[in-house]
């Protein structure tokens, strides 16, 4: 490539980056502005970053919902992986009639629109007295991410050479031991990737949390959405909350970018 | 998906070959025995039945009744009336139309822009600056969807938003991005495309890096123009990944809710009413869960059709 062509490409890349990051940055800047600066026209471009009142106000009233989000997300990730890993291992190593059908069925449940499950789940948890509890959200989020976790975990259990599994069996390991002491350690980095994906999916979820929580178990996205009402929008709270809310996905994206394509395509596209 | 299992394989492999050397047993039968296989897979299957089969059947059941969320004990069987009403409900039909328009147009934007971006980052992939800028460009797609909606509500606010301020500086009249029925859907489409163009870009980049330089050189020797290269060299390489991207994005767009929930709430009027939002409002605003369930069942049927195609395709790709 010629030098001038390369410079042109860099300029174009800078422009693309600006388009995809500027809106996020603009919201981040708003979090450090007082109310009048948030609404100022012409805009205040660079705020005073030592102004943290928005964060203080936000967290003093809503820290318990942030905590809810953390507990629900971590809990859902743990439950999801506890079900997904054995299932994926079984589906890879256990040959039986209808195995492909079962795997396809599992994948197809990932495509189900949450709205189709919302009312029935609402009724079940209502009957069980579990509406507006953290437990119900953990159960639902773990379940909704289960197909994804199983399907992608299958692809890395498949990468473990068959000979290793065979050898462990011949050494006298039970299937449970083979799974725990041989397969899991070998798939360590893959498990880390999948868990992080599940974590982010659960962290970002809004629709089901709107249905299943009302006061006690509200998650942070529900709280954020409540800052925008028909009559008034609390931008100072929204901007501060947005920073906190998008921090985990941003860190995740920067750390895991090699796995994002394969993760989001359920392992169909490798890079 | 490629994981660096090789790091751990080093020692284990040595150990394995050693133990294999000692043994002369036939190794053909390594399948789990029945009971173990069952124990591994069954809990997850049961879980999924509870979270997908049961809700589906229950939704179908509810959709045959006239029932209010506030009075669940009073149900009136109405047969297919909810479905017939839905198909005659202008709001529901509008929501299907809007969802279709949104899906097709945001995907068209995502594919075209994604391709341009992918080409640019492809030419810079050996350079540090290209890698850093690419990492930053892909941030939108993992960000919490309601935050994306709120970020743009702030930017596109008719009176205090920066978008209209910048436009007024170049002499463009302020726009009512979410308030004007003829603009609102376009605004939602543009935001949706903003969030997901990086995904298409990454997909296409994954396809484009697989093209060997020699193919480009050969095309250049033949005197091929850029559009010849795009058609005969690049398109075949990225056809499959584009198809996967389209399938996944169609399914996601059918579920689209958060973005509309915080920006337009379906309005103004019915301008941005989407199918998922329609069902949500029936269920939890008007408490018409029978009617809402019928809508949900129809949405589900559409997804099942698309999913059947999708699953077949994804399985083929993963097994390749």
Would you kindly provide a brief summary of this structure?
The complex is a heterodimer of chains A (271) and B (320). By secondary structure, chain A is an all-alpha fold.
SSE map:
The complex is a heterodimer of chains A (271) and B (320).
Chain A: H1 3-30, H2 35-38, H3 53-93, H4 99-110, H5 115-127, H6 134-157, H7 162-170, H8 175-186, H9 188-204, H10 207-212, H11 220-226, H12 235-264
Helix pairs in contact in A: 1-12, 3-6, 3-9, 3-12, 4-6, 6-9, 7-8, 9-12, 11-12
Chain B: H1 6-22, H2 34-63, E1 65-68, E2 71-77, H3 81-87, H4 90-123, H5 128-137, H6 145-155, H7 162-169, H8 181-208, H9 213-221, H10 226-255, H11 258-263, H12 275-284, H13 289-319
Antiparallel strand pairs in B: 1-2
Helix pairs in contact in B: 2-13, 4-8, 4-10, 8-10, 10-13, 12-13
Describe this structure in words.
The complex is a heterodimer of chains A (271) and B (320). Chain A is mainly alpha-helical. Chain A has one domain (58-264): MetI-like (MetI-like fold, Orthogonal Bundle), CATH 1.10.3720.10. Chain A contains twelve helices and no strands. Chain A has helices at residues 3-30, 35-38, 53-93, 99-110, 115-127, 134-157, 162-170, 175-186, 188-204, 207-212, 220-226, 235-264. Chain A starts with a helix and ends in a 7-residue tail after the last helix. Helices cover 72% and strands 3% of the residues of chain B. Mean pLDDT of chain B is 83; it is low at 1-29. Chain B is globular. In chain B, α2 packs antiparallel against α13 (289-319) and α4 packs across α10 (226-255). Chain B has one domain: MetI-like (MetI-like fold), CATH 1.10.3720.10. The longest helix of chain B has 34 residues, at 90-123. By secondary structure, chain B is mainly alpha-helical. In chain B, β1 and β2 form a beta hairpin. A two-stranded antiparallel ribbon of chain B has the order 1-2. Classes of the chains: A mainly alpha (271), B mainly alpha (320). At the A-B interface, α1, α3, α4, α5 and α6 of A face α1, α2, α4, α5 and α6 of B.
